[in-house]
Amino acid sequence: MLLKFSDFVTYDLLRLIEGSHTAGMVHFFVYDTLKIIMLLFIMISLIGFLRTFLPQNKVKGWLAGKGFAANLAAAVFGAVTPFCSCSSIPIFLGFLKGGVPLGVTFSFLTTSPIINEYLVVLMLGYFGWKITLVYVLAGISVGAVVGFAIDRIKMDHLLEEDIVNSQQNGPLEELHLKGFWPRVKFGLGESTLILMKIWKWVLLGVGLGAVIHNFVPRETIQAIMDSTGFFAVPLATLIGVPMYGSCASIVPVAVVLFQKGVPLGTAMAFMMATAALSLPEAVLLRRAMKLKLIFVFFAMVTFYIILIGYLLNVLQPFLA
User: Fold this and answer.
1) Residue 8, number of CB atoms within 10 A of its CB
2) Which helix (H) or strand (E) is 161 found in, with range?
């Protein structure tokens, strides 16, 4: 339904030429904006509903003090959720508002866009089980390690005030919510309030993504990576960071790069960076935290992806 509506707006209402960059940008913007808004509303409502059964103090007790195990569990949970970097934000915000430790929430946010079931299916078809398995393990390790590191350096003071206040409001059972419909009403109300605060960030973020997605030629990316030798891995990662796309759309690009002779780790680093980080994601995260924390998160993930890229290049002969 969203796809048909996006087609209608792009080709029938605006009468843009199919296949043009402008048509692609508009179609991307309309489709992804509607998709993300719907996901935001549904997921925040669902999480708000579930939070009425999970007092904040108990949630904190389950995850606080569990060390690396909590980060690993959050990364594995992220691996089984089929979201892009922007669509993972609603669950991330729900975790923060529920009092889940900051690093644990980042473990989920990092891994969720890197791995999902349809990516695994695509990679099995294109690369085989060995490369797919290594990629999945690498993706989970990125989330677990980065989240654990963020927990260690204690950056909770860089969250926005309303997020911090929501964590300090005490257990949700104090609301005395009983029955199904009061809990549903609470979830819908929380979703509406959050959407009213972040809808502008969604539009700005998806708009940036639409421009980058449709006006940055793949051939240019490939030519740059082919000419940089040893520095191809960090360059591929840095090129991928500001871009916006799901793994499903990036896998074919990584396949083409690999088939054209780009080393496996370089192609995988580009795919991971494109999926895990993006300018639209940074814009959306600004709603919940200070720029310094966003920068630290992006820098950590970028550095770790570069290390994984070099490792996969070394292992390539054994994975073929």
Assistant:
1) 12
2) helix 161-167
